[in-house]
Design brief:
Elements: H1 2-29, E1 35-40, E2 43-48, H2 50-61, E3 66-70, E4 76-79, H3 81-86, H4 108-116, E5 121-127, E6 135-143, E7 149-155, H5 157-178, E8 184-186, E9 192-195, H6 197-203, H7 207-210, H8 215-218, E10 220-223, H9 233-240, E11 250-253, E12 259-261
C-alpha cells in the first residue's frame, strides 16, 4: 500500500506539473507572456520572447531620439544607436558602461539628480563633439516600477543654433536701424529684405512697401551728367562677392523723382 500511495502522489505531482506546463504554453501561444524566468544553477535568468520583444526593439532602434535604460547608479543596460550618436559613442557598445564615463564631468550632477528622482524629470546638458562644437541635448528620465531608469535624449543643437541666429539677426537689425547711414539689404534674387529709417528718407520708400521689391526699383542710380541709368551695383556686388563703388557722377533718384548726390564709398 505504501508503494501504491507513493505512486499516486507522484502521479498527482506529475498532473499538476503537466497542467502548469499546459497553462504556460497556452499563455505563450495567446501572447500573454513576454518573458520567462528560469531557475538555473547560476540563479534566476530572464529569457525574453523574440515575438514579444522584437517590435519594441525595432521601434526603439529607429527612433529619432536617443533611448536607453539605466540602473539608478548610471549603469547602461540598453541604448539604441541614436543615443550613442548624440553622445558620440557607439550605441551597440554602451551596454555595461557607466553613463558617467561617457559624458563630461560638468553634466554629472545634473544626471545624478535625474537618476535619483522618483518621478519624470529632465535637464538640458551640453556635450562635446568631434567637430569641437558643443552638442545641446535634453535628457528626460523616468523611473520604471522595477527601479530601472528609462532615458530619452533629444538633440537640441539645431534648435539652439536657430535661436542664436535669430537673436543675432535681431541684434543686427536694431544696430542698423539706429545708425546714421542709409542701409539697404537684398537677397540673392535682388529683392529688398531690409531698409533702415535713413534709407527710407533718402529713397522715399517706407520699409513696409520696399520689402520684396527689386532693389533696382528702390535704389535707382543714374549718371548726373547724362541722366542715364548706371550699371546695376547690387548685381555686380552679388556676382563679384565684393564691395562695389559707384561712379563719381552717381545720383540717387527718389520715389518722387528727386535727384540726391551719392557720395562715392571706396572699399
Amino acid at each position: 500500500m505504501d508503494e501504491i500511495g507513493r505512486l499516486r502522489t507522484e502521479i498527482e505531482e506529475l498532473r499538476r506539473a503537466l497542467a502548469e506546463a499546459q497553462n504556460a504554453i497556452r499563455a505563450i501561444q495567446s501572447g500573454e507572456v513576454d518573458a520567462l524566468v528560469v531557475q538555473t544553477r547560476a540563479g534566476e535568468r530572464v529569457f525574453t520572447l523574440d515575438s514579444a520583444y522584437e517590435p519594441y526593439r525595432v521601434f526603439l532602434d529607429n527612433m529619432q531620439q536617443g533611448a536607453a535604460s539605466l540602473t539608478a547608479d548610471g549603469l547602461i543596460l540598453y541604448a539604441n544607436n541614436r543615443f550613442g550618436e548624440i553622445l558620440h559613442a557607439g550605441g551597440e557598445h554602451l551596454a555595461g558602461k557607466s553613463v558617467y564615463d561617457i559624458v563630461e564631468s560638468a553634466n554629472h550632477s545634473a544626471i545624478e539628480r535625474l537618476l535619483a528622482a522618483r518621478g519624470p524629470k529632465d535637464a538640458e546638458i551640453s556635450l562635446g563633439s568631434a567637430t569641437g562644437h558643443p552638442v545641446h541635448a535634453l535628457l528626460h528620465v523616468t523611473s520604471a516600477p522595477d527601479g530601472t531608469r528609462c532615458a530619452v535624449l533629444t538633440d537640441l543643437t539645431e534648435r539652439v543654433l536657430q535661436h542664436d541666429i535669430l537673436a543675432s539677426r535681431e541684434w543686427l537689425r536694431v544696430t542698423l536701424t539706429s545708425i546714421g547711414d542709409a542701409v539697404l539689404s537684398c537677397d540673392t534674387a535682388r529683392r529688398v529684405t531690409f531698409c533702415n529709417p535713413v534709407a527710407e528718407i533718402l529713397t522715399g520708400w517706407p520699409e513696409s512697401e520696399a520689402l520684396s521689391q527689386p532693389i533696382e526699383r528702390i535704389f535707382r542710380i543714374v549718371d548726373e551728367s547724362t541722366g542715364k541709368a548706371g550699371d546695376n551695383a547690387a548685381a555686380r556686388a552679388l556676382a563679384d562677392e565684393a564691395v562695389v563703388s559707384l561712379g563719381s557722377n552717381a545720383v540717387l533718384v527718389t520715389r518722387d523723382g528727386q535727384h540726391i548726390p551719392v557720395r562715392r564709398a571706396d572699399p
